[in-house]
Design a protein that fits this description.
With about 350 residues, this protein is an alpha+beta fold. The chain has four helices and 16 strands. Strands 1, 4, 5, 8, 9, 10, 11 and 15 form an eight-stranded antiparallel beta sheet that branches. The radius of gyration is 46 Å and the shape is elongated.
Length: about 350
């Protein structure tokens, strides 16, 4: 509550700059007092199934309810179905998708949480066991499993697995390898990306607030366009408690799709996923490059050798010419004293008369 008091007359003369600061502080205080907390970034295109519901403060969606005596399960799905193979034109364009979500799982040994892709008719088959997938035989699931079920060969009670039509994972990864515990109650952030050009799915996981990991925790090659054809599917986040009191909560969820042009499919993102034809073509290109590199190197070495030979010949010729200049000096002759003979010449000087000339 803001209280105003009368000020002495001496204090009424306030500098304009100080008055501006006072007004700004007052507006900031009012803004803070009137601010309303935002709901989690979950969007309005959601359908809540089973025991899934918003929490009292609307900061998250709780998928399971531990107060229920029987097993609890909940699911949130995007209302609008998607197709993983676009048939808008004659040439079908495979569809890729990326999703990321933040969640937490309480410290109990329940089933955990899963990102699922299911047929549109799945809503009528949702059950309270095994992420609600027990009655469905066509699904894709990325499970964040916190229990060990020997019937499906679970790795441990802290793993990420990829399920294709069965709860027996086709690929698993130990979450302990990155120093995280799924059912620690701590907020976690996961990214699931499917690329239709390389036909592979990648799963990443980190503690909330940490940057997106460069290396995926799980990678698996699968063609979802071939799996679902042109069928409409739903994407969602599901959880079930099993025989525990586990609670799974979702705080944020983003999902987006993108169509990949056919001409981009020539080079998948995963080099190890190349076909034999592409591998042979790549090997031939490498051999060609190596041959060109060898020839270029040979030509370069030959040129260097020729240049070096010219430099040596030039220096040798220069040295020889310098030697001759030192030994023989142009314009001078090598003379000896014995090569000249000296003679005495008498010269008589007279007065210029004829008699003197006769002498």
């Amino acid at each position: 509550m803001l209280e105003f008091h009368s000020l002495p007359s001496a204090a009424c003369s306030i500098h304009p700059y100080r008055a501006l600061i006072f007004v700004s502080a007052l507006l900031s205080a009012l803004q803070c007092s009137l601010s309303i907390p935002h709901k989690p970034h979950l969007g309005s295109n959601l359908l809540l199934i089973g025991d899934a519901k918003f929490t009292t403060n609307s900061f998250s969606i709780r998928l399971t309810d531990p107060r229920i005596s029987s097993p609890s399960a909940g699911l949130i799905v995007q209302k609008k179905p998607i197709r993983l193979s676009s048939s808008a034109s004659k040439s079908k364009k495979p569809v890729s998708f990326s999703t990321d979500f933040t969640f937490s799982i309480s410290p109990h040994n329940g089933d955990g949480l899963a990102f699922v892709v299911v047929p549109r008719s799945f809503q009528s088959k949702f059950s309270v066991e095994s992420f609600g997938l027990l009655k469905e035989n066509r699904f894709l699931g990325v499970e964040f499993d916190t229990s060990v079920d020997e019937n499906v060969g679970d790795l441990n009670a802290n793993h990420v697995g990829l399920d294709v039509g069965s709860l027996a994972s086709v690929e698993t990864s130990n979450v302990s390898s990155i120093g995280l515990v799924l059912n620690s109650g701590v907020k976690l952030h996961s990214w699931v990306d499917y690329d239709s050009s390389s036909k592979r799915i990648e799963v990443r996981l980190s503690k909330f607030g940490s940057p997106r990991p460069y290396s995926p925790l799980l990678v698996y090659k699968i063609d979802l366009g071939e799996m679902w054809k042109n069928e409409e599917v739903l994407v969602g986040l599901s959880s079930s408690t099993g025989n525990s009191m586990q609670t799974s909560s979702v705080y944020t969820w983003n999902f987006r799709t993108r169509e990949v042009p056919q001409w981009l499919h020539s080079q998948p993102l995963n080099p190890r996923a190349f076909s034999r034809e592409h591998s042979e073509e790549k090997l031939a290109q490498k051999r060609k490059i190596c041959a060109l590199g060898f020839m270029s190197g040979l030509v370069f070495l030959t040129g260097c050798g020729a240049f070096l030979a010219l430099v040596v010949m030039f220096l040798w010729a220069l040295f020889e010419n310098s030697s001759e200049t030192v030994l023989t000096i142009p314009g001078k002759c090598t003379l000896h004293s014995g090569d000249f003979r000296y003679e005495k010449i008498n010269v008589v000087v007279g007065d210029g008369t004829p008699d003197d000339a006769k002498k």
